[in-house]
Recover the amino acids of this structure.
């Protein structure tokens, strides 16, 4: 068909056909080179996706919050003082650590099953002392059942029953009384090893010179 056309028109048609083929090929190449839509990136490991509720740090941490507790054990125990215990310990543990109770302890007035609290004072009352139930304490010589203990006439057993005074300290009081004569003030107990100002304050009202 093209052979019957003049040479100039043949060239023109060939040029148009070449241009159309070039356009078709170019369009196909452009479609094939178009970038694919990128996939959404995954969140880093350990992070919380946007919109998701944050995890409760308290629920994720199984470590218990309780720590050691320190209590002051006083009264009718053999070794009064400050003691450290693990969280969840009971008053019975504190009494046991303090050497147990003395013979005059009103132990029925103490709730041994109660839990210990940091900074608490555990008091084991002496039988017959104010606020302690049970039978009254034995009266010192010449005194009534509710009278304070006389340091100048008390026996070693009576002194041992006082809060914070064990058998060793009771004997020291008797030795001091023998060497220096009668007590004229409760404050003189400060001269006895093992008895300090805090213990003297605790004994005031319970003993007299």
């Amino acid at each position: 068909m093209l052979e019957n056309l003049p040479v100039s028109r043949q060239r023109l048609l060939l040029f148009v056909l070449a241009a159309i083929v070039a356009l078709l090929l170019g369009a196909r190449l452009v479609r094939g080179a178009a970038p694919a839509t990128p996939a959404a990136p995954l969140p880093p490991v350990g992070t919380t996706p946007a919109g998701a509720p944050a995890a409760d740090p308290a629920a994720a941490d199984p470590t218990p919050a309780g720590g050691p507790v320190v209590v002051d054990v006083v009264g009718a125990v053999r070794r009064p003082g400050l003691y450290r215990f693990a969280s969840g310990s009971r008053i019975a543990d504190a009494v046991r650590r303090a050497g147990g109770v003395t013979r005059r302890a009103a132990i029925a007035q103490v709730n041994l099953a109660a839990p210990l609290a940091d900074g608490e004072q555990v008091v084991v009352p002496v039988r017959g002392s104010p606020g302690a139930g049970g039978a009254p304490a034995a009266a010192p010589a010449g005194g009534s059942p509710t009278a304070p203990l006389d340091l100048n006439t008390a026996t070693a057993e009576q002194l041992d029953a006082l809060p914070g005074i064990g058998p060793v300290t009771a004997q020291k009081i008797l030795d001091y009384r023998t060497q220096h004569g009668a007590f004229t003030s409760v404050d003189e107990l400060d001269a006895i090893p093992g008895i300090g100002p805090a213990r003297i304050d605790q004994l005031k009202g319970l003993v007299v010179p």
User: Anything to note?
Assistant: Strands lie at 69-75, 81-85, 121-124, 149-150, 207-208.
